[in-house]
Specification:
The structure is a homodimer. The first copy, chain A, is an alpha+beta fold. In chain A, 28% of the residues lie in helices and 30% in strands. Chain A folds into two domains: 115 residues, D-amino Acid Aminotransferase, Chain A, domain 1; 160 residues, D-amino Acid Aminotransferase, Chain A, domain 2 (Alpha-Beta Barrel), CATH 3.20.10. In chain A, the strands form two sheets. In chain A, strands 8, 9, 10, 11, 12, 13, 14, 15 and 16 form a nine-stranded mixed beta sheet that branches. In chain A, helix 6 crosses helix 7. Chain A is globular, with a radius of gyration of 19 Å. Chains A and B meet through strand 3, helix 1, strand 6, strand 7 and helix 5 of A and strand 3, helix 1, strand 6, strand 7 and helix 5 of B.
């Protein structure tokens, strides 16, 4: 793919290779910003409005004004997608508070920074789907507002690094009582006594849009859904899966180098994945 | 001051106004970086080696390789200072993991980003020294590695914002038992029964170089120093001060809109400040 990639940066579409922001952008110096990642399949954006609504909530939570109306951002997302060569794409939106001489307290009225990129959607390989994901657990070291989709992601980077050092794919954060909260870049769900169980939304968990989609798929097919704190080793726990924009749900086959049940992708996990993909296909045909 | 400010960015000295980094710099998208702020008075850097040593420790803690030897960074700091018009300056160093297509897990060998700027050293006004600082307290919402001087500073930005909304200058973080940990951009020290008391260094507190300097000044003048957890409202608490690179120590006269003791700058606080400034002056003459 030799076509030049294009990025949107503060009003302009420019070659990604030349896309820069000022070194005193508060996103660069203070992690003072928020983001979204949206999947697009052949021109159909998955839950675009839900992502835009969350973008707005994130901005409100950190008191960054929206750089423009949500409808304009939607147009820019589409335009960025169209200027790039990928049919199945991962569109990334980032908003920061803007550029100012470095000082913790934002001074005066700043112009928020808006960048949008569109890159190829990474998809799980058949081999990974067959073998399942290996995860580790780590004590939660993150801040206390994980419900905000902020760019202050260093803890998650370190978690991913630790997972990689242990030859695992993802790390799941544990609260003080060892409940599984979420992953570094995923939500985590389990099948316990046949029900789909996942941690309730609070300050420790991002309200994942794919998490919602998995819950919706389960509900529509009469699976019981329980939003409650849960742990590894609970009696009746037979499957674990993780959800994210780029992966729908993926089966977790090993946690901390121990097999989950028989170490094979869970039957209900793969069923929920199938329902989700069917729902996406229906959306594409509409 | 109409002289063009100069920044160092990855090997080049360029006008600050044109100083940019790529939008896929991991510092911008993941807060995947660390920083230092060093004060310089008329060409004398305050504790430069201590800052450089901490820079190295921060890099090690997040597994970012140093972009070059510490001695080279020291040279670049001096050159950046010299190319800018400020005699008393605040030199800012930031290192990030580098540029890569966005993915939580750093892929392959990246070239770390190094930027250095030199801006005018902000100094407390006589009026502020006379009236003292107003602080508020907030429950700690930060991550669990505050001993690392990382750029994942959004929690501190929100703390400073909340302080400003309450017409205060700084916010101090409280642990679960209401011990005072540190401020958003400062360490906090108190005088209790005549001793200088400050929270011990652990994962909740940055090892401030100016905090060290205050402790050193107190020790050299035979003041008792206690590194222990402490609270507002302890019997014998007569003064509170905060320390930072740009402020030495500053008296805190109001906390949560209530006067500390008689609401005047503390006598020992101002004495320690004087000792610190004398120590700096001695350094400059050497």
């Amino acid at each position: 793919m030799s076509q030049t990639l294009i990025a949107y940066v503060n009003g302009d579409f420019i070659p990604l290779q030349n896309a820069t922001i000022h070194i005193e952008d508060r996103g660069f110096q203070f992690a003072d910003g928020i983001y979204e990642v949206i999947a697009c399949f052949g021109g159909t954006f998955l839950d675009l409005q839900a992502h835009l609504n969350r973008l707005q909530r994130s901005c409100e939570a950190v008191r960054i004004p929206l750089p423009c109306a949500l409808s304009e951002i939607a147009t820019l997302v589409l335009q960025t997608y169209e200027r790039n060569p990928y049919s199945d794409a991962m569109v990334y939106i980032q908003i920061t508070r803007g550029v100012a001489p470095r000082s913790h307290l934002p001074q005066g009225e700043l112009k928020p920074t808006l960048i949008i990129t569109s890159r190829q959607l990474p998809k799980p390989t058949d081999a990974k789907l067959a073998s399942g994901v290996h995860a580790i657990t780590l004590k939660d070291i993150r801040w206390k507002h994980c419900e905000i989709k902020s760019i202050a992601l260093l803890a998650s980077v370190l978690g991913k690094q630790e997972a990689a050092l242990q030859q695992a794919d993802e790390a799941f954060w544990l609260d003080e009582e060892d409940h599984i909260l979420e992953g570094c870049a995923t939500n985590v769900l389990a099948i316990i006594h046949g029900a789909l169980v996942t941690h309730p939304l609070d300050h420790q968990v991002l309200g994942g849009i794919t998490r919602d989609m998995a819950i919706r798929a389960a509900c529509e097919h009469s699976l019981t859904v329980e939003e409650r704190a849960w742990k590894l080793g609970e009696t009746g726990l037979t499957e674990i899966m993780m959800s994210s924009t780029t992966n729908a749900v993926m089966p977790i086959c090993f946690i901390n180098h121990q097999a989950v049940a028989d170490g094979e992708p869970g039957v209900l996990t793969m069923q929920i994945r199938k329902w989700m993909i069917e729902a996406m296909d229906t959306l594409r045909r509409e």
